[in-house]
Amino acid sequence: MINLPKKPPPSLMVFLGIPSALLFSYYCFLKVGFNLSDFKENLENRYLVTDPLFNPKWSWAIENASEALVETIQIAILASIVGCFVALPLSFYASQTTNQNKVSYFLYKSFLNLVRTIPDLFWAMMFTVAVGLGPFAGVLALVMFSLAIMGKLLSETIDSIDPGPLEAAKSSGASHNQSVFTSALPQVLPNFTAYFLYIFELCIRASVILGLVGAGGVGRIIETQRIFLRFDRISPIIVLILLVVILIEQFSVWLRRRIL
Amino acid sequence: MSIPKQPIQQRILKYTITALIVVGSIWSASGLEITLEKILKAPEQIAILVGAMFPLDLSAEAIERILPKVAESLFIAWAGTVIGALFSFPIAFLAANNVAVNYISETTKQILNGIRAFPELILAFVFLPITGLGALTGTLAIGIHSIGTLGKLSSEVIEGIDEGPLEAIKSSGGSKINELLFGVVPQVMPTITSYWLYRFEINLRASAVLGVVGAGGVGAELINQLRFRDFPRAGTVLVATVVLVLTVDTISAAIRRRIIKGRSVKV
Amino acid sequence: MIKFENVGVVYPGGVKALDNINLEINEGDFVIIVGLSGAGKSTLLRSINNLVKPTDGNVTVDGNNVTNASKKELKQIRSDIGMIFQTFNLVNRSNVLKNVLTGRLSQVSTIRSITGLWPKEDKQIAFDALQRVEILEKAYVRGSNLSGGQQQRVGIARALAQKPKVMLADEPVASLDPVTSRVVMSYLKKINQELGITTIVNLHFLDLAKEFGTRLIGLREGNLVYDGNVDDVSDADFENIYGRSIKSSDLIGDDD
């Protein structure tokens, strides 16, 4: 008789997790009102949307939305630049590699985590109340958005850099800031650039929606047109934005190859 | 010996990038009419708003209104992620160039890119006339967008696997399906499952926002409270959202870490 | 020049790295420290510039108490002590010149170091340091594009740029081949002789120690077990320091 080793029992996570996940999913679909027959009925209305959607009115879009589109892009440019560069020093404080002070590290890290929890449109809503309607509020909102993402990505990158050069600088009597600047920052610059381009792209997409709450950009036009089901006017706008996003994606691929 | 000078190309790249950034910022700022005055006034204005939110409105009436909406955001996000995970999984195989034929995988990738391109809100707009106001629209918007992103990410995981085990299965007479089930799936499941959870975290934020256009969730609450200048109540909505997102983020991150690390079994 | 008074180091977790070290190193000495891994060589070296703070006793450099120095005093003391490392610790993405200039950081304001507007004198000091290790022509080459031996020479230049009174070298040649190791060691020796900089080197290659050292210090399990002239050292002394017989891995040998 062969003595088989005892089979390890299924992990608690799998044993409890999977059935509860399934149950929860069922509950969620119930609560959101997922009903197949209703859904089928609803789909019959799709022509309300698909007919105009696939009938883009380019001339209208170019005439009426160009200015707003430019505004959208400007918001994204400014917000991503400001947000990412402000996030740069914050990230060094939010990493234990470059910040040995436990309290300060905890504060900075928590701040970044907190900012991350608030969705971009919520920031936009609050800023429109604080500084008034218009693109300024939109820029501020996306600055918080960029800051949060760059902060998280960059601080995690800093966590894994080589601490050797930092030690070398410290041992020569350099101040903390000097050490970080000359010996830690150069190590993460390629990552910073890659993250910046990624965040810039995210900002352009996010910026499209800001207008919905009055924070500038093409969102306002989209909102007014949508109420009248003018998807024929909305689709060219979206396509134009997508073209910009694709251009940026190509540019960032090219740039990354040059820099690396 | 003479002191060498720095080669020209290195400096040109540095100056060009700096110029781009400076010019881009100035062009944008002036185009948006953002003056120094506005910037300097902003911190004070923000402080006024934040001050108006405290003390938070924690009355029973407020909680009764807000809590269900917060829960609704959770349900929408979860259901949407489930839709995304379910459909993206098989599609990811079609989009992976080491599983599907090149022309199928390319086409699928482009379709996925197309879906990904639309922000959830825009998708919600498209669905609103069809499925009406409410949580279902939000779920569909999030679900379909997730299919796009998860599809792309999952296909990349599949493309990055170790072909060795597949070869072993093939050489022992296994079929293509065997290869997939026993060679590919075990390798990719940990990473893909962690992507699902990460997507859930992001979808939670998206679902909070969708309420603004009436697609369910807590966004509608916030915008209403702000419009009616009921700042304490708006503050409560914010805090409730933050607490929910933080909780989900923490739990999800812990589960993701555990999934990637794998279980340690005592031998 | 450097005085150890009852120095002890106990790491959190209870590991005793140094036990009651009493040692005096004179200005201009070229000291080599040998011992097994974990004998305390690295700890001893790092207690000189307080990268490791002794739990007992204190270390004095040039009359200044390093162990109990304030932050400001410590920076001043450290600027007079140059250090080179086994892993070179260069900033790989930066060029050689930028790396050497980091040796001048303690003497230059933060603004200038950030904007790259180094004063002309500091740049000259950096160039002179590079000249001394004969690597000036590589000034604008990225750190990562250099060989190990070249990187260590840049490390030496960086330390030299501080215009130090003391030079600490923590296993500077452990990652290098025999020929390059001897080149690096001879630069260290030359600098010690020409500039009179007190030099302390951790080595685990015994033949290299005999070849280049003047004074030899042996550490075993945190204790000072040998202190004498390199010429007086016998194999038996080495065995005592190591607590075992000599193996071939303890010798760097020649190029084969």
Explained architecture:
- The complex is a heterotrimer of chains A (260), B (267) and C (256).
- Chain A is an all-alpha fold and 260 residues long.
- Chain A has a single domain (56-259), classed as MetI-like fold, CATH 1.10.3720.
- Helices cover 79% and strands 0% of the residues of chain A.
- In chain B, helix 8 (176-210) runs antiparallel to helix 10.
- Chain B has 10 helices and no strands.
- The longest helix of chain B is centred in the first third of the chain and has 36 residues, at 60-95.
- Chain B is globular.
- With 267 residues, chain B is mainly α.
- The longest helix of chain C is centred in the last third of the chain and has 18 residues, at 178-195.
- Chain C is of the alpha/beta class and 256 residues long.
- Chain C has helices at residues 41-46, 71-79, 96-101, 110-115, 120-132, 148-161, 178-195, 206-212, 235-242, and strands at residues 2-10, 16-25, 30-34, 56-61, 64-65, 81-84, 166-170, 198-202, 215-220, 223-229.
- Chain C has a 6-stranded mixed sheet. In chain C, strands 2-1-4-5 form a 4-stranded antiparallel sheet, with no helix packed on it.
- Helix content of chain C is 34%, strand content 23%.
- The chains are: A mainly alpha (260), B mainly alpha (267), C alpha/beta (256).
- At the A-B interface, helix 1, helix 2, helix 3, helix 4 and helix 5 of A face helix 1, helix 2, helix 3, helix 5 and helix 6 of B.
